[in-house]
């Protein structure tokens, strides 16, 4: 965050504001952790603030302090629109294009107030007057820690803020194993633990609360895995029928895509999940090394994200999507087998 942006935010927050904080649609640990951490920080500073999520999110994230104050735009639409209409400032976290917030997009696009973006994804759009965008960061939660530091308030990080930030950093770094995890990341995490972050309990709450249905669904996903050794690629499919048979709940497929990368020699892993309600196949891409799944997703599946983690979608059937995906790999064989 440059000096000019820091001064602009300090000026904004030097007077009382009505602040709306927004994560992306289908928010994950980093999105909920960062928005709640910022919410606690702003409220502790005496600001009036509210987090409005575009839609629901997994149960394993709902233990975080402040969760009960989040408005769900789909479920609490009139109340959420009222808060947006009253807003004097909007913070958008963990996304950089208003197309990532579903039904909220048109509402926010009509809002004539300052926007502040805090995000670590590639190719940001220019909707925000104040942008803190850094693709080298491990997570938006790490950036919120930095934001609080830029404001001169690291000593004001409470137990609640520490727990939220730790959760987002832990989940978005794959428990600190992804390449974006730096020495700075670990130093921040150490400070959060010193400030009270309950690291062992957080890991348990996020990763050790599986239902039998989720574990059975994982077994189904692994059974469906296709391994393409010639492209150092593995992919998983899950049909709507398979999701329904295992009583799928939001968040149940979180992390499934990473199992492909545990195979020796595999550097590209994908999961294709059919969603008949939306009429699409949702896709998650992961890679190891220099193969950019961000570029792959942008080029072929209306998606994007990071070099080693991205998402996308397909309007084709599940079978047609996987056949199309396989047909693309021949064009990337040199990159995948280098």
TrEMBL record:
Sequence ranges assigned to domain DDH in this UniProt record: 18-169
InterPro entries: DDH_dom (IPR001667), DHH_sf (IPR038763), DHHA1_dom (IPR003156), Oligoribo/pAp-PDE_c-di-AMP_PDE (IPR051319)
EC number: 3.6.1.-
Start and end residues of each DHHA1 domain: 248-315
Superkingdom in the source lineage: Bacteria
GO molecular function: hydrolase activity; nucleic acid binding
Keyword line: Hydrolase
Signal peptide: none
This protein's name: Phosphoesterase
Transmembrane segments: none
Provenance organism: Zobellia galactanivorans (strain DSM 12802 / CCUG 47099 / CIP 106680 / NCIMB 13871 / Dsij)
